[in-house]
Structure formats: C-alpha cells, structure tokens
Design brief:
335 residues, 0% strand
C-alpha cells in the first residue's frame, strides 16, 4: 500500500468528522434564522408566526428553551383563532407549564379548538369528562367527544371508544370494541394493539387467534407498551405460543423494567437470580426497585425474594446494589 493510500485512509475519519460538524453548524444556523424570521413576523401580528415563535421558545429551537416566554406568544396566536396554539395553551394551563395551573382556562381553550374541529381538543375534552377533571363526570358526554375525534381517524379516541365498549354494562360490547380497536391498531397505536391482542388471545367476541394475538402483542411491545413488553417476555420465558428463549425473554423484560413496570422489574430480577447466568447483585438491585414501586401482595413477594437473594451477598455488595437502585429510581423520577 502506497503512502498516499495510507494518508487517504487516515484522512477519512477527519473528513467525516468535519462533515458532521459542518452539518450540525448549518442546522443550528437554519434554526436561528427561522427563529429570527418568526419573531419579525410575529411582532407584526401574524398568528402562524406567533405560533412558530412560541414553539421555538417552548422547544428551544434556535434559542434557549423558555416556556414562560413561549406562553404569551401561544396566547397571542390563540386569541387570533389559531387552533393549534389554543391546544398548546390549554396544555400549559393544565400542566402548569410557563403559567399557573388553571383547569377552567384549560377547558375554555380546548372548547375553542374543538369548535374549530380539532380532533386533539375533542379527545382531550372527552378524557377530562370521562375522568371528571374540571368537568362533571359523564360517560355519555365523554363518548360523544371521543366519537367526534374518532370519526376524524384520531387513534387515541378510537382506542378509548374501544375500551369503553369493553367496560360497558351489563355486559361488554366486544363487536364494537374490536371495530374501534382495530381502526386504532392499524394506525400503530400501541394501547389499541395490546388490547386487541388480549381479545384475540382470550377469544372474546370471536374465536381465539393465537397468531394474531402474538403479532399484535409484538407490535405493541415494539411501540413501547410496557405491559406488552412484559407479556412478550413471559411468552418467551415460558414458551407460550413461541419457541422458548431466555435471551429474548430477558430483552423484553429489560425494556419493560426500564419503564418502571413492576412485574417486568420483578421478572427480570428472577432471571438474574435463578436463570442460567446468575447475578445476585443485579437481582438484589432490581428487587429493591420493584418493591418500592409495588403494592400489597406483589410488594411482599419482592421483599421475600430480595431477602433470599441478599443472603448470597456480602454487606459491601448489598450496599453497592442499593446505590445502584437509587440510580434506577432517579431514572424514573426524572420522567
């Protein structure tokens, strides 16, 4: 290999690094230019520009993020009838972001956006009505709001209608539930996929279909649904409808555990304690985290397992495992 060829190969990482740096610098420049352009137009009263400027402040695009500065620009756009700004303003009032919490103002702005036909606002009003948050709890009114949004193909509303049909008294309406859940699942809505998977698995409203149940559960798990991830882990651990695989079971239990799923944490801890590759320190850490998140009988089971695992550890290793548990807790608290 000639010296020129060697130099060329050595230069490639440097050139790639410079290209990445230049791309990032260009992207940052474009964001700053977009911010300046939005500010100039917003100050002249352009509602769409006011919304863009508020978004820049809210998310830190082209400027440092500052939700308090985002609020007045969302408000200016909302007062001009900008529906998305109205929804954002409602969310800020609901969650006390950049302004004090005020559920009455939240509802007022959602109603304005709903009047403009915004499905997200209709869904939010349905949710608040179903839960009785600053609105009288009324299942029929909630169903009506969900239906408005669902007819616009808004997947979360379709899912809620499906779940309401499953809870209908005196008996569930499985046909309606399946219809709405299927619409949402086809849009890749994880909660709908998980719920529809359970109906296929249990044969509710139609004959059991294990293949469809597994396929939907796999999609829901891939979309981050922690219950589905835990269930998928259990399927692989026990060989339910799929070839048994400790490696895949550990993978899905880990994904559920990373979201604070108590049964996922406990199942992963059991695999570390009594699986093919024991790691009592990690098991002790996971049982420690699980017991703090669990309740009643599940907490007692985690306590007992933690104590049993702890007998295999020295005091120093137990102390380190408990410190690791604090890291896990901090991860969940930061969300």
């Amino acid at each position: 290999m000639s010296s020129q060829t060697v130099l060329m190969y050595l230069a490639i990482p440097v050139l790639l690094g410079l290209a990445v740096f230049a791309w990032r610098a260009l992207a940052a420049l474009r964001l700053r230019m977009a911010f300046r352009s939005a500010r100039e137009k917003a100050e002249k009263g352009d509602a769409q520009a006011q919304f863009r400027l508020a978004s820049c402040y809210y998310w830190g695009r082209g400027v440092d993020d500052d939700q308090a500065k985002a609020f007045p620009w969302f408000e200016k756009a909302a007062e001009q009838g900008h529906a998305q700004a109205q929804i954002c303003l409602a969310g800020m009032y609901r969650h006390a972001i950049g302004v004090g919490k005020d559920l009455k103002k939240c509802v007022a702005w959602l109603r304005k956006a709903a009047e403009a036909g915004e499905a997200e606002a209709e869904f939010a009003l349905g949710l608040m009505t179903e839960q009785g948050q600053s609105l009288p709890r009324d299942m029929e009114a909630a169903r009506a709001w969900y239906r408005k949004a669902a007819d616009k193909n808004f997947a979360p509303a379709q899912t809620c209608l499906g779940l309401m049909a499953l809870r209908r008294e005196p008996e569930p309406d499985y046909e309606t539930a399946r219809a709405w859940l299927d619409k949402a699942a086809r849009q890749n809505h994880a909660e709908a996929q998980a719920a529809l998977s359970a109906l296929h698995r249990e044969g509710l409203g139609a004959p059991p279909d294990p293949a469809a149940a597994f396929a939907l559960m796999y999609k829901a798990a891939g979309n981050g649904h922690s219950d589905a991830q835990y269930t998928l882990g259990r399927c692989y651990e026990q060989g339910e409808g799929v070839r048994r695989s400790e490696k895949k079971a550990r993978l899905w239990y880990t994904r559920a555990a990373n979201q604070g799923h108590v049964r996922g944490l406990s199942a992963l801890a059991w695999m570390y304690a009594w699986g093919s590759r024991p790691d009592f320190a990690t098991a002790y850490t996971l049982f420690t985290v699980a017991r703090e998140l669990a309740r009643d009988e599940m907490r007692e089971k985690c306590d007992a397992a933690r104590e049993e695992v702890g007998r295999n550890l020295t005091a120093a290793v137990r102390a380190k495992a408990e410190k690791n548990a604090e890291v896990w807790r901090g991860r969940f608290e930061s969300r």
